[in-house]
UniProtKB/TrEMBL annotation:
<protein>
    <submittedName>
        <fullName>Uncharacterized protein At2g39920-like isoform X1</fullName>
    </submittedName>
</protein>
<feature type="region of interest" description="Disordered">
    <location>
        <begin position="1"/>
        <end position="25"/>
    </location>
</feature>
<dbReference type="InterPro" id="IPR005519">
    <property type="entry name" value="Acid_phosphat_B-like"/>
</dbReference>
<feature type="compositionally biased region" description="Polar residues">
    <location>
        <begin position="13"/>
        <end position="25"/>
    </location>
</feature>
<feature type="transmembrane region" description="Helical">
    <location>
        <begin position="35"/>
        <end position="63"/>
    </location>
</feature>
<dbReference type="Pfam" id="PF03767">
    <property type="entry name" value="Acid_phosphat_B"/>
</dbReference>
<keyword id="KW-0812">Transmembrane</keyword>
<dbReference type="InterPro" id="IPR023214">
    <property type="entry name" value="HAD_sf"/>
</dbReference>
<keyword id="KW-1133">Transmembrane helix</keyword>
<keyword id="KW-0472">Membrane</keyword>
<feature type="compositionally biased region" description="Basic and acidic residues">
    <location>
        <begin position="1"/>
        <end position="12"/>
    </location>
</feature>
Length: 316
């Protein structure tokens, strides 16, 4: 082959190698750019996807919890508002009923449940404690005269804690309402006794009064003495002809008689409005709170000893 032929062959071979090399290099570049990924890069990429997924799920869970919490909070606020509204309504209705001597049958049905809550959840006990504390503060600021003419009139029926209750002349059945009122009666008895003992220790002359008939005097006195309620000067009770008299009028007449006899009535203490109104009710009256549904429901014709475990006033 001539020298020219060898030269042409070399050029052709060089062009072929160059073309094939370029083609192979282009294919390698495409592979790296399109589908090739190292193991470490793949690990980082997958970890990132997992992290993002977990974050999204956590966010969804948090939003769900927040939504449920908001719904529960709103529900709780509404329930609290409804309970507060019912409580305030029943408490004011009870006060209105006492002032106007309304019958228990006029009470709204919702007040029965509110009454049970008022006693069972301890609010009635707190109200009693506050009232007795106010009364004790008043008497601590005064000193009775040594002549025994400064007297305090106190409702013996509160001290006795009668458990006999009537509604529309029908005995209350032994249900939750009856049980709660029985508990309330006992609490009122305890706090009334606490105040009575405080007055006795401060040497205030006490005159007790009761709605019970005179024929039960001996039983009533024995009951009072059995509870360490002694030291009072007299016990006002009604004879048969006075049993039909309005008790407010009856007690007003008795207080008038005391005034005419030279006594000074410093205070009258009772849980019943009929004992706190009328003539000569004293310098200060103290009304022990009643549960809703209890005011003016007690039948004082008989004495029923308290069956609850006996607590002393200082143990309340």
């Amino acid at each position: 082959m001539s020298a020219y032929g060898h030269e042409m062959e070399r050029e052709y071979s060089a062009q072929s190698l160059s073309t094939r090399g370029s083609s192979e290099m282009g294919s390698h570049y495409t592979t790296e750019a399109g589908i090739y990924m190292s193991a470490s890069a793949a690990t980082v990429f997958i970890s990132g996807l997992v992290t993002v997924g977990i974050s999204v799920v956590s966010l969804l869970i948090a939003l769900t919890v927040m939504l449920n919490s908001c719904q529960s909070r709103n529900s709780g606020v509404l329930e609290m508002y409804r309970n507060t509204h019912d409580y305030d309504y029943c408490r004011n209705f009870a006060l209105h009923a006492e002032l106007n001597s309304l019958g228990a049958d006029l009470f709204p049905e919702i007040c029965k449940d509110i009454n049970i809550q008022y006693i069972k959840e301890g609010q009635y006990k707190r109200d009693l404690n506050i009232t007795v504390g106010i009364a004790e503060g008043f008497f601590s600021s005064l000193r009775p005269q040594n002549d025994g003419r400064d007297v305090v009139l106190m409702d013996a029926d509160d001290l006795l804690g009668s458990e006999t209750l009537v509604v529309n002349d029908m005995r209350i059945k032994k249900d939750n309402l009856h049980g709660s009122i029985r508990d309330a009666n006992y609490l009122k008895h305890i706090f009334a006794m606490k105040l009575c003992l405080k007055l006795q220790s401060s040497r205030w002359p006490l005159i007790l009064f009761s709605r019970r008939p005179e024929k039960l005097r001996n039983t009533t006195v024995e009951h009072l003495m059995s509870m360490r309620c002694h030291g009072w000067s007299s016990l006002i009770m009604r004879i048969d002809d006075e049993m039909l008299m309005d008790f407010q009028e009856f007690l007003s007449r008795r207080r008038t008689m005391l005034q005419r006899e030279g006594f000074h009535i410093t205070s009258v203490i009772s849980s019943q409005m009929d004992a706190l109104s009328g003539r000569y009710s004293g310098d200060r009256v103290f009304k022990l709170p009643n549960p809703f549904f209890q005011y003016n429901m007690e039948d004082h014709s008989e004495i029923h000893p308290i069956q609850t475990s006996k607590l002393l006033p200082n143990e309340v």
